[in-house]
Amino acid sequence: MYGSSAELPSDSDRTAFRKAEKKYKLYKTTAPKSRKKQIQTVDLSEVYDFRSVLQTFEQESRTPPGIFKLRSDFHLPVFCFEDRPGFYFIPGALSIEEQSHWIGESLTSFPQPPNRTNHNAIYGSIHDLFIAVQSGKVLTRAQNTVVDAQHDLHSGQDNLDACKWTFSEESESIPKRDSCNSIVASTLLRKLRWSTLGLQFDWSKRNYDVSLPHNKIPDALCRLAKKLAAPAMPVGEEFQPEAAIVNYFGSGDMLGGHLDDMEADWSKPIVSISLGCKAIFLLGGKSREETPVAMLLRSGDIVLMAGQARECFHGVPRIFTDEENAEVSILASQFSCKDDRCLAEYIRTSRININIRQVN
Fold it and tell me: Which superkingdom heads the taxonomic lineage of this protein's source (predicted)?
């Protein structure tokens, strides 16, 4: 589902959803008389901004055409589209402190085995990646040495050679600067694209593999998801978090249009938490031929998709990582104050999305 801005199809193959992706994706051009790449500006005039929607509602008690405020006893304002039943937008639901906490968890705890990541297929289970980043270490292929065999026995790893990879001091990497046999931990973190919590999702088979080792979703995340899911839940029922996928986005990354259709009961919502850099989210219809609506996602925003909305194609064509538009300076300063410089550096140019699901 991930892709770069160069991977979209030609005009002849482009559906209404693809056209919208092209409209908002990241383009870089070379400035005249300069070799420096510049980011092209994007027209946001047709992009819904729910921060502004909330401000207008609080000041004037009105919403734009096609949008209404949900009537409920939920403790935060919830907005919906009239023509997208089952879609709920909760702007600014998480405080700066809560955002900081879940960013930290997403980079330190969530990629830990037995949780699987996109790195498993190449390197096997990687323990303490973020600690290795802080220490400036290098992941190196050991020579004729079995490393962490006991850990890997319980990791459900894919790669038979994965036990030969271990972290070492940069000066100890052997052979030095050999990209086939070593990779700097900070580079590995930047190449992190997803991790899976709770029941493990098998991307190749597109289903949940209950045979893979896993831990339950952390209690604090379960409590948060249950609370946030309330506006979209059937009366008298409580959301039961069983799995989560954490997506990591960097500059130029996008998430192509797709459906989240592997859960048994679509009446239960997917709870989607946005953290870090601002993004554009596209919500289409049941066909890629239907023109999607575009909206801004900021750090701390929550999206719920349940019922009919689960049948709608959706994606993220654009992440704003430039300082002017990312809108993360206040968030990054939280980590600077705590001397967590690696976290601050990462989130200034990245977006994290935690989406929690009830599988059964």
Answer: Eukaryota
